[in-house]
Amino acid sequence: MSEDSKPKKIGRRKFLKNLGTGVVGSTVAIHGLQAATRDDQSLQAPPTHQGQTALTLSVNGRKITTLVDPEISLAELLRKQLKLTGTKIVCNHGECGACTVLLDGRAVYSCQMLALDAANKKVVTIEGLLKAEDLHPVQKAFLEHDGYQCGFCTPGQIIAAEALLIKNPNPTKEEILTGMSGNLCRCAAYPKILASVVAASGK
Predict the structure, then answer these.
(1) Whether 81 and 106 share a structural domain
(2) 47 partner at 20 to 30 Å CA-CA among 117, 154, 162, 197?
């Protein structure tokens, strides 16, 4: 091995000196960048991230504009970006209904829908049924008639019930069973879920 190809040893003092120079240089560069950003703020477009798309929609009566990855589901947007964790992701395959939300008044599995497909639409989650501190009639009925066990599927059950009652305020028991059939309960609390929806009918 020639002298030129041998790794060169760097002394501790020289290493620390070089490191200090690099840190100072980086700090100056960052401050300069921040100052330039402040000066040009009125001319700059909102910050974007590579591959993300702007999305505008209404969530629980509030207009929201945010950046999303094209492949993110509506359930992930609600839970991770908007922190509305009442919407549950359980099977993530559109089979259990725990992630059910209202989209323009109809029930949809939010885990099976791209967030971008909700553009300019109205989304209502379990949190959106509350009015200040007052429970929605369907929420009250589930509470009064024990329409839950572990409670994990309950938000989806309540939203599915609300979607059914929007279309049919006074359904028969058979219509309730059909309308709620896409929402599974691992605790098998179906008789009490049925009683809760019956109690909420007409309210």
Answers:
(1) yes
(2) 117
